[in-house]
């Protein structure tokens, strides 16, 4: 059973203003939605948490910590880098990844929630 919206009066000014408001923030919404979509993956969220906590890490370290292959870790890092959430810096033969400064506003509240989460045990 589908319900439909029946309105007596449409507030044309409100609708027009809301359309303008959405147009103004459309790019920001798209960027945030993509960041949240990527960070919504459990592995990538763990990686972001570790990168935030440690400042920088190489794929080998993340591989050892998360128990995954380096190629699998690298694929996740590529997605995060392509979205502008992480950046890389090559030192000698090693590539180190860190949280991109431009993504701090998006990621900091999410990562703080993880850090502040209290683990409860069921007895």
Automatic annotation (TrEMBL):
Ranges that cross the membrane: none
InterPro entries per UniProt: ArsR-like_HTH, HTH_ArsR_DNA-bd_dom, HTH_MetalResp_TranReg, WH-like_DNA-bd_sf, WH_DNA-bd_sf
Keywords on record: DNA-binding, Transcription, Transcription regulation
Residue span, HTH arsR-type domain: 25-121
Recorded coiled-coil stretches: none
Entry-linked Gene3D superfamilies: Winged helix-like DNA-binding domain superfamily/Winged helix DNA-binding domain
GO molecular function: DNA binding; DNA-binding transcription factor activity
PROSITE patterns according to UniProt: HTH_ARSR_2
Family matches, as PANTHER family: ARSENICAL RESISTANCE OPERON REPRESSOR (PTHR33154:SF18), TRANSCRIPTIONAL REGULATOR, ARSR FAMILY (PTHR33154)
Protein name: Regulatory protein, arsR family
Native source species: Reichenbachiella faecimaris
């Amino acid at each position: 059973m589908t319900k439909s919206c029946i309105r007596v009066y449409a507030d044309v000014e409100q609708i027009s203003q809301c359309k303008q408001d959405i147009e103004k923030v459309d790019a920001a919404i798209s960027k945030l939605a993509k960041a949240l979509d990527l960070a919504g993956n459990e592995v990538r969220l763990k990686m972001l948490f570790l990168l935030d906590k440690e400042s920088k890490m190489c794929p080998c370290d993340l591989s050892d910590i998360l128990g995954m292959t380096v190629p699998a870790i690298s694929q996740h890092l590529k997605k995060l880098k392509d979205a502008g959430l992480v950046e890389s810096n090559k030192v000698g033969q090693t590539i180190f990844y860190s949280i991109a400064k431009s993504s701090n506003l998006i990621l900091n509240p999410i990562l703080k929630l993880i850090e502040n989460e209290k683990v409860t045990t069921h007895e």
